[in-house]
Design goal:
The chain is an all-beta fold and about 55 residues long. Helix content is about 0%, strand content about 35%. The chain binds zinc ion.
């Protein structure tokens, strides 16, 4: 099961807006990201590894 997470971007620009991309992540990949907030469950595939089972 994947969830939608609001994350800190992997690379932050020194200037400009800080972006918090929303990603669909599985429970394995989510450990690689700094999660700001956790969203709803989704059946979309993981955007990091493509897992969809
Ligand atoms: Zn994944």
């Amino acid at each position: 099961m994947r969830k939608k997470y609001t994350t800190e971007g992997k690379s932050q620009p020194k200037k400009g807006k800080v972006s918090y991309p929303k990603l669909v992540l599985c429970d394995v990949c989510v450990r690689e990201f700094v999660v700001i907030s956790e969203g709803d469950r989704t059946y979309e595939p993981c955007e990091n590894c493509g897992a969809d089972s």
